[in-house]
Amino acid sequence: MELVIIQYNAGNIQSVLYALERMGQSAVVTDNPDRIRNADKVIFPGVGEASSAMQYLRERQLDSVITSLQQPVLGICLGMQLLCSYSEENDTTCLGIFSERVVKMQAPAAKAGQRYKIPQIGWNSIAQLHSPLMEGIAENSYCYFVHGYYVPFGAHTIATTDYIQPYSAALHKDNFYGTQFHPEKSAETGARILQNFINL
Amino acid sequence: MLTKRIIPCLDIRDGRTVKGVNFESIRDAGDPVELAELYAREGADELVFLDITATIEKRKTLHQLVNRIAHHINIPFTVGGGISSVEDVHILLQNGADKVSVNSAAFKNPELINQLAKSFGSQCIVLAIDTQLEADGEWYVYLNGGRVKTPMRCIDWARQAVDAGAGEILLTSMNNDGTKKGFALDITRLLADELPVPVIASGGGGTVAHFVEVFTEAHADAALAASIFHFKELTIPDLKQQLRLQEIAIR
Q1: How far A114 CA lies from chain B's nearest CA (Å)?
Q2: What is the ipTM of this complex?
Q3: Which structural domain range is residue B193 located in?
C-alpha cells in the first residue's frame, strides 16, 4: 500500500511520518500531483495559517488534485479545516469537501482562574464517536489539540469535543476524513485512529 | 474538558540528562532517549527538552538526539536551548520537534519571536523565562541559564513576548528550581491570569500537593518538573492518579 503525505507550506510532516513509522507503515512525502492521485491513501496534515496554505495549494494546482481524490483522505488540524468550505482565518475560501465553515474561537470574559486561553493547547476528550475512523476508541478518550479556529457541529461531525462550547473534533464525508486534533501526537488513542485510517 | 498538563523536562548536557539545584550543582540523571520513552509510556502529556550546553560544535549531535527521541515518543515534544534564528527552528522541526522554546536570544532580539511566529505559527513558539524574586519584591528576568540579571520585570517581558507572537510561556522560578519546596505561586498566578496564552509553571514541584496548588491556586495550565521524575521520587502515573482524586482535570 502506498500512503502519501501531502507536502506543503503548513506541515507538521515529520511528526506524522514518525508516528506512521512507529506503526510499521512507510509513507511518501510529496507535492507531486500524479504521485498523490495514484496513492492508496492520502494524509493532508497541517499546522499554520489558512490563507497562505490555500494560496500555496492553488499556485501548485494541488487544490484541484485534493478535491478530485477518490481514495481515503485524512486531513489533520489545519488540513481538516482546509477541507471545509470557508475559514474565518483571513477570510479564506477553502476546498469545500465538507460544507461546514471554520470560525474563530471567542473567549468569554475572563473570571479569576477561569480564563480561556486561545489557541486551545492540550489534551481534551472526544465524544459521540461514530465512523470507521473511530472504531475501538472509547468515549471520552483524550486527544491532543492545538488550534484557535474550530468547526461547529455539522452534518459531517463524527466526534465532538468541548472548549468554551461544544464543536466538531472530527468530520467524515464519503472518502474524506478530518480530525481537529493531532492523532500523531495523541499517544495510543491517536495511533489507533491512524491505524483505523490505514485499515479503511 | 481541557486537562492540565504534566510535563517532564529533560535538561541535556553533552548528550546526558542532568539536573541541578537553583541552576547549579548539576548531577547525572540518565539516558535521555530511555527517559523520554518511559515518560511517554507512563502518560506524560508532553515532553520538554532543554539543551543546557548548546555550544555550536555540539549542535549536530543535539539534532541527532532530538531526532532519536522524536522517533520514540507519541506526545508533543518541545525543544529549547541556544535557539537564535529561523534556521535553527527549521532544523529542529525537521528532526521531529513540535514546538521550540526560546529564551535569552529572544530577550536580546525581541524581533526573533515575531519572525518565528510568522514562519511557524505562534502555537510552535514557547517563550521560556527564568525569573527570580528580588529584595524589592519584584520578579526579574534572568538570561543565559540564570547567570545574567536584567532590569526587566517578568510580567512586562511576558506581555511583550505574547504581543510579539509567543504562543505559550514556560515560567521557571530560580528561587524554587530544584528545591522541591513548591512552585512560585504568586508570579505563576499573575502570568496565568493576565496573559491570553497558556502558562507552564516550572521550578520547585516536589509533592502532589505542590501540583494541586499550582493548578488550583496559581491557575497554571501545565506544570513541568524534572528531578522528582528522573529520580523516581514521584512517578507520573501516581501523580496523575492523585490529581484525579483531587478532582483536577487530568488525562
Answers
A1: 8
A2: 0.92
A3: 5-245
